[in-house]
Write a structure and sequence with these properties.
about 600 residues, 4-stranded antiparallel sheet, 3-stranded antiparallel sheet, disordered C terminus, repeat, transferase
């Protein structure tokens, strides 16, 4: 391949490409500064018969189309070379298994687009292949560099800044200085930032590359010294005291880690001891709670982390502890222990004791086997559905327990988190109130002012949200939501449109439109119960859900009205031959006498459990 004169073949933008087995390819040209001096540059490929057969089978002669010398090779163009022609030399011993080879000059950027083909079968591919090349400009017909600079005070000289002028045949050309790049005919050549490409960092680690105008230098970091004389090929070696420095740092870090571990373990033990003391002092700060202290040895150690454990004597109990080691949760648990220790009612979960030997206090209470009312209402079992009579009984049990808290305990107690998931069902499916973590002891005729709203979304008293004053009527409102759950089988927050998400609003709208039967739980409707009972309980729930707390009934009145409906499903006590049921008798006897709200005397309203 020969090239015409008059064009400068770019030495920076082009490359030589050779393809084939055991082939040498090369550039032949003359030095543009000395037309008589010949310049050569080239490369060679290598492959044996086995590799050639492999290339023939797979249809390519290099992996990933990269020329590494195996079947193909590349060579750069010498700077200042006027390219005349390309030569290809084939070694004779490869002719029998790979007779063809090819070489061509091509723009370096276009090389990845060439698709390797096996030459002996695809010669036409290379014959038709058209490849781009890059030529440098030359200024023809204006003399050499000196003439161009001097003519008319250099007005005709077009080489811009950071470039040099090179004399060529019949003129001159412009070329950016080493370390600069750009088009010297249009604008000043700009600096090449050799340090910007970290993938091809010119400095050897650990030397740091510093870019300079037109060049760069390599500097050794602190603790190293340069043992080379070339700023671009810096060799960094640790200083004489570097090894001792590293040893001292290593020993310091090791000893520091050991001391830090010992100190941390000591602080951990100290904090744990103080937490135990704090648990005891916080618990005893209440008015002498009547509790049993349980030693950690009494609990099944293999059951740590579970909510149900077994005491040493074989009794199944429930063990409650905070989920997180946060003061608020610990305080809620201690508050629950203090509240439960002063309560003795058969429809309230009984506290058996507490353990203060752990990092956080543990509450040990009786185990209630049949789960929560929430689960039985919203995930009913076909084998054992909750009937209307059972729902009335659970509502009566819960209302009676809440009335006991408000009226018959030594100090009135507001539960503050009444909801169906806090009503547990025992082995007889009787209701028991639980979870007194947010409950509060208050004086008679007092309200409880809070800085933040406590409770569960869907059960909030709207008056409490506005005033932050929690009263016994706030518990009544939450209990009204539970009554609506028992009637409709719907959750307090319904997973439907935003307009009907609130169970309370949805229920009240149906009551106003006299469409109660449209929303009664289908499971209950199947029992063919007296529809008047539904209306009675629904009307009671509507009164509980009044936005004005003063218009709501007391929990004592609520309990009496539920008991009146429940009595319709119970055998008459005075009926001849009818066996009495102690549970039902207890409920009815509990409300004999006064129908007033809670009084100052607990004797007028006694719901303590009986043996």
């Amino acid at each position: 391949m020969k090239f015409s004169d008059g064009f400068k073949f770019s030495s920076t933008k082009n490359s030589l490409f050779g393809y084939g087995c055991d082939t040498s390819v090369g550039f032949v040209g003359n030095d543009e500064m000395n037309a008589t001096a010949k310049l050569r540059s080239g490369c060679a490929t290598m492959c044996d018969r086995r590799q050639a057969m492999y290339f023939r089978r797979v249809g390519k002669q290099s992996k990933n189309n990269r020329c590494s010398g195996l079947g193909c090779c590349t060579a750069s163009v010498p700077d200042g070379m006027n390219l005349n022609y390309i030569v290809v030399e084939k070694h004779t011993y490869a002719l029998d298994f790979n007779p063809c080879s090819v070489a061509f000059a091509v723009a370096t950027d276009a090389m990845p687009t060439i698709k390797p083909q096996f030459l002996s079968e695809n010669v036409d591919y290379f014959k038709k292949l058209q490849l781009p090349m890059v030529y440098d400009w030359s200024i023809i017909g204006v003399g050499d560099c000196e003439t161009a600079r001097s003519s008319k005070a250099g007005k005709d000289f077009i080489c811009k800044g950071n470039s040099e002028c090179l004399n060529v045949t019949r003129g001159y050309r412009c070329q950016c200085n080493p370390g600069f790049e750009g088009n010297p005919y249009l604008h000043d050549c700009h600096d090449i930032d050799e340090c910007s490409n970290q993938l091809y960092n010119p400095c050897k680690h650990p030397a740091e590359c510093i870019n300079t105008n037109g060049s760069y230098v390599c500097l050794c970091p602190k603790g190293y010294s340069d043992i080379s004389a070339d700023a671009k090929n810096t060799l960094c070696s640790p200083s004489t005291n570097q090894s001792q420095y590293k040893l001292a740092v290593g020993l310091s870090v090791t000893l520091g880690s050991i001391l830090l571990f010992i100190l941390g373990y000591w602080i951990y033990k100290l904090i744990k001891r103080r937490q135990k003391e704090q648990n005891s002092s916080l618990l005893l700060s209440y008015k002498k709670p009547l509790i049993t202290l349980v030693r950690i040895e009494s609990l099944d150690k293999e059951a740590v982390g579970r909510s149900i454990r077994e005491l040493a004597e074989g009794k199944i109990v429930a063990v409650k502890k905070p989920k997180k080691l946060e003061e608020s949760e610990i305080m809620e648990l201690i508050n629950e222990i203090a509240i439960l220790s002063q309560i003795n009612h058969r429809n309230i979960v009984k506290l058996l004791g507490c353990c203060l030997e752990t990092e956080v206090p543990l509450l040990v209470s009786e185990f209630i086997p049949n789960g929560t009312l929430f689960h039985h209402i919203h995930y009913p079992s076909e084998e054992f559905p909750i009937t209307w009579k059972m729902r009335l009984q659970i509502a009566s049990d819960s209302a009676g327990a809440l009335a006991y808290l408000h009226c018959s305990s030594s100090i009135p107690i507001f539960h503050r988190d009444i909801k169906s998931s806090n009503i547990l069902l025992d082995e007889k499916y009787r209701g028991k109130l639980s979870d007194f973590g947010t409950s509060r002891l208050v004086g008679t005729d007092q309200t409880h002012v809070t800085t933040r709203v406590m409770g569960t979304r869907g059960y909030f008293d709207p008056e409490y949200i506005q005033t932050h004053q929690f009263t016994e009527k706030s518990d009544v409102y939450s209990f009204g939501v539970v009554l609506v759950e028992l009637l409709t089988g719907q959750k307090a927050i319904r997973a439907i449109s935003e307009q009907d998400r609130s169970l309370t609003a949805w229920f009240l709208s149906h009551m106003e439109n006299s469409r109660l039967l449209d929303i009664i739980d289908s499971q209950v409707l199947k029992e063919n119960c007296n529809k008047e009972e539904f209306h009675t309980i629904a009307t009671l729930a509507k009164r509980c859900l009044s936005s004005d707390g003063k218009r709501r009934p007391s929990i004592k009145e609520v309990s009496l009205e539920i008991e009146a409906v429940l009595s319709l499903h119970l055998p008459q006590i005075n009926e001849p031959g009818t066996p009495t049921e102690p549970d039902e008798v207890f409920v009815t006897e509990a409300f004999k006498g006064s129908f007033n709200d809670c009084g100052s005397s607990s004797s007028t309203f006694n719901l303590e459990s009986k043996p």
